[in-house]
TrEMBL record:
Cellular compartments per GO CC: mitochondrion
Gene3D superfamilies, per database record: NAD(P)-binding Rossmann-like Domain
Organism for this UniProt entry: Microthlaspi erraticum
GO molecular function, one term: protein-containing complex binding
Name of this protein: NAD(P)-binding domain-containing protein
Domain NAD(P)-binding per the UniProt entry, residue ranges: 63-206
Amino acid sequence: MRTIVSRLIRYKSSLPQARIVSASGGGRYLTTDSNKIDEPFNVEEAETVHVPPPPTEKLLVLGGNGFVGSHVCKEALDRGLSVSSLSRSGRSSVQESWATRVTWHQGNLLSSDLLKDALDGVTSVISCVGGFGSNSYMYKINGTANINAIRAASEKGVKRFVYISAADFGLANYLLGGYYEGKRAAETELLTRFAYGGIILRPGFIYGTRSVGSMKIPLGVFGSPMEMILQQAKPLNQLPLVGPLFTPPVNVDSVAKVAVRAATDPVFPPGIVDVHGIQRYSQQKSR
């Protein structure tokens, strides 16, 4: 708060001081002491100050029992948010303490009635919903389900909506037509319905430790070194056709951190955040 106040003081001091001057004929008009008419104001860029969210902040995570969704739930709880989740299977099977602090809803995003109940009192939403299969199935899960959620959240007056989408992979997009067509349709709906509070994250391959039953798969063994290598090869992204294949992987903790910040920080800019933006925002320390 001290940082914000000091910036406001500097901004105020840069403004010319107004005074009222008498004019001929008995009239009065407002003037300033400055003769610099067209000089722009010295406005500094806003920055995020990390403060505990108010108790009324409630986050709904769609797909909160999945790989990315579970990390989003944990990150939000660590930030002091009230967290609920809606997914087809309901409560997470993870036997960890954080799971007991989440309100779990079971439902299908293709059913708008169940979704509206889960949105009661919610101030922000993060959707981690997506999947693979046939083209029609992928469009339905990645597109229609998320579009339903975006529309329902807008009608409920939700302030901010964050959508975990996917980076373009050039030629690979044609092999997963329904997947990417669904993702882009949901993105268009989000930017239309939430022009000032809609954020789209486009990570590439997301790595971390995945739990499959009782087995844990440490994807970071491969993902972390690849991220470091491809970060240094950023110019390769600009190559025609094959450039997107050099998109670096990103840690699931980074995605979760940026998603929660985007959902709760009113100065986080709306729009699309690519993998390099995700990496950059995740490395910024809260003040």
